[in-house]
């Protein structure tokens, strides 16, 4: 899927919500835990419930890898389920991979050939070698970490570079933009630093930004949209815990978790309605 | 395993060789390709043949992930095989993971609980949050990327920081050292930049360095030892392709690959003998 494809999907759905499938085994409802594939069963219901409000799903590899072989199996089952049932959803492997050229090629093959993801998140530390193999696939994307949502993003990402006094994350954005186009490169920019999105938009006015950190981490759709949206939206806002574990916030006693997918749908619908407002405000609407 | 444990192993074996198990499906001998678990069968023979010369094995996740579920299965089979048969080998998951705190915890669980690795390689871009969960395990290590062996390591790793005019990789080393100890933190420093090891030793005289890039990438044991060894060795030199695919350099016609493990053992033995010389030269020997 290219830039226009993603833009048109956002336009027609009036949402730029990405639902993060981070199925933490310790948080999924009790009645699912005894099933053979609890992570997959959980995801399946979440996907069915939230797909109407979302344009993308993001699978965070850590939550599958920590369950070993069976976790990886459920990772692939989830990706296959989305591909088969919701082929128009933009599918992201949140893997934060990054390695030398010959190894990066294998990671690209893992997510773009062996599995059919649209995009993979990439750690930029090792430079161009580690990003380029992902750009060799037509219609696929590298989503490069720029300014992340976690507190310790200030350890290295915001260090100033001697050459131009720019923070490292800006250097990452400018250099990475030379390696690809707006059709195959996005950047991860955390919602917890929403005001920084204005500065980021000065360097990359067009590229899509994948913005995690809304909900559990404290960012808001309104703020992210105010500072980060461009004339063609240019945003995918990810919500993981605040959507998929919305049921945890309900006081339902012994029945806790029975309606987890309904609670997730409500949380996703609320975010999507906020997104529709933001798109309307900006004039990114169907004529 | 702690610092002394690793040092004693190196001392008794007079080798600091780490064999990189990157079983590229396109390079493994033809006669193995029709087996049910070709990567594992290949690894098993390589492990048996090279274990006498090595103190560590490093599994690069990309080469397993690109084979999908069956690849992950063979990754775990390989790790289990080493644990069961060579429990004294230091076992590294070359995963280059790095994510926000709650996710990094899951990655740590994947490699230290679900699997029984001694160490995981970590990408430092996202800062302290992404490293600390790996340090919460007694006797386990985080091996943090500092100066890597690939050509584009100059894109970001060597950018000078305004505060102190240090290159980024030195900043990564100094800050990371504050989060752990020499018993749980190593750094990845490429053999292709051997002379830089002198500068790195000025900042971290004691920490072990994991040095890839010997062999296929052009680095040498002699150079790495001259610039990077300390009084307790402090080095693990990794060789992957030049050992495990040594058979590719032999002109054996139709029999190519039949003796792949013997060829790997010879390549490993040669590196180990170079390492013994380097240890002797430095006086790191059993009294």
Question: How would you characterize this protein structure?
Answer:
The structure is a homodimer of 287-residue chains. Chain A is an alpha/beta fold. Helices cover 44% and strands 15% of the residues of chain A. Chain A has a single domain, classed as TIM Barrel (Alpha-Beta Barrel). The first copy, chain A, contains 12 helices and 8 strands. In chain A, strands 1-2-3-4-5-6-7-8 form an 8-stranded parallel barrel, surrounded by 7 helices. In chain A, helix 9 links the parallel strand 6 and strand 7. In chain A, helix 6 packs parallel to helix 7. Chain A is globular. Chain A starts with a helix and ends in a 5-residue tail after the last helix. In chain A, 57% of the residues are buried.
Question: Characteristics of this structure?
Answer:
alpha/beta; globular; 8 strands; 12 helices; homodimer; 287 residues
Order of helices and strands of chain A: HEHHEHHEHEHEHEHEHEHH
**Separate helix tally of chain A:** 12
Q: Oligomeric form of this entry?
A: homodimer
The CATH C-level class name of chain A: Alpha Beta
Write the CATH architecture name of chain A.
Alpha-Beta Barrel
Task: List strands and helices in order, with pairings.
The structure is a homodimer of 287-residue chains.
Chain A: H1 3-13, E1 17-21, H2 30-33, H3 38-50, E2 56-60, H4 62-65, H5 68-85, E3 90-97, H6 101-114, E4 119-122, H7 128-135, E5 141-147, H8 168-179, E6 185-189, H9 196-203, E7 209-211, H10 221-228, E8 235-239, H11 241-244, H12 260-282
Parallel strand pairs in A: 1-2, 1-8, 2-3, 3-4, 4-5, 5-6, 6-7, 7-8
Helix pairs in contact in A: 3-5, 3-12, 6-7, 10-12
């Amino acid at each position: 899927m290219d830039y226009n494809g993603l833009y048109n999907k956002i336009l027609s759905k009036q949402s730029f919500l990405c639902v993060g499938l981070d199925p933490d085994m310790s948080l999924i409802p009790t009645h699912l835990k005894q099933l053979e594939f609890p992570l997959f069963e959980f995801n399946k219901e979440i996907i069915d419930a939230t797909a109407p409000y979302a344009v993308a799903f993001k699978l965070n590899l850590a939550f599958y890898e920590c369950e070993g072989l069976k976790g990886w199996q459920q990772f692939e089952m989830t990706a296959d389920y989305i591909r088969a049932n919701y082929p128009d959803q933009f599918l992201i492997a949140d893997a934060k991979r990054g390695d030398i050229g010959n190894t990066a090629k294998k990671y690209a093959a893992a997510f773009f050939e062996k599995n059919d993801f649209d995009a993979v998140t990439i750690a930029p530390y090792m430079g161009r070698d580690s990003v380029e193999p992902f750009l060799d696939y037509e219609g696929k994307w590298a989503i490069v970490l720029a300014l992340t949502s976690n507190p310790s993003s200030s350890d290295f990402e915001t260090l100033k570079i001697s050459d131009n006094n720019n923070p490292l994350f800006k250097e990452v954005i400018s250099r990475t933009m030379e390696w690809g186009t707006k059709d195959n490169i996005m950047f991860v920019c955390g919602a917890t630093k929403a005001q920084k999105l204005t500065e980021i938009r000065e360097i990359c006015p067009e590229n899509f930004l994948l913005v995690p950190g809304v909900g559990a981490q404290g960012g808001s759709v309104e703020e992210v949209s105010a500072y980060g949206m461009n004339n063609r939206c240019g945003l995918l806002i990810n919500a993981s815990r605040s959507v998929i574990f919305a049921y945890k916030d309900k006081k339902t006693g012994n029945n806790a978790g029975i309606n987890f997918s309904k609670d997730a749908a409500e949380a996703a619908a609320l975010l999507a309605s906020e997104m529709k407002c933001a798109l309307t405000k900006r004039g990114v609407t169907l004529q």
